[in-house]
Specification:
Distance between the termini: 53 Å
Number of strands: 7
Helix content: 10-25%
Order of helices and strands: EEEEHEEEH
Oligomer: single chain
Structural class: alpha+beta
Strand content: 35-45%
Shape: elongated
Number of helices: 2
Radius of gyration: 18 Å
Number of domains: 1
Length: 112
């Protein structure tokens, strides 16, 4: 059985658009997701499924400032799919707004 491959697109930590393949490798009974982008080589720990490894990779990239991430499966079990599969979008993590201090800040917070 072959491994899956996904195309990952979005904005990098400097807000530049990118699109790169995410590959998987076996590690014992698990799978690692691997992304190579410019000088970045992101690799997850081993996970029971390729899907879980991909989800961890997405979370790791989001924690590093990557946004508007989406993936499209291009290979399933080693078979080429082209662009048949739908894109899966990953919502950006919510960023908390800084608390306003002082009297004016407290008044503005009442209206939120």
């Amino acid at each position: 059985m072959g491994l899956d491959k996904h195309q990952l697109a979005g904005l990098d930590d400097r807000e530049r658009g990118f699109s790169r393949p995410v590959e998987f490798e076996r590690d014992g009974e698990g799978y690692r997701a691997i992304l190579r982008y410019e000088t970045l080589r992101a690799m997850t720990e081993a996970h029971p499924t390729q899907h879980e490894a991909l989800a961890t990779l997405i979370q790791t990239l989001q924690a590093q400032g990557y946004r508007q991430l989406k993936t499209q499966m291009s290979f399933r079990d080693g078979l080429y799919l082209g662009s048949q599969e739908l894109w899966v979008e990953y919502p950006d993590p919510l960023e908390s707004e800084p608390e306003q201090s002082g009297l004016l800040g407290r008044m503005l917070n009442w209206f939120r």
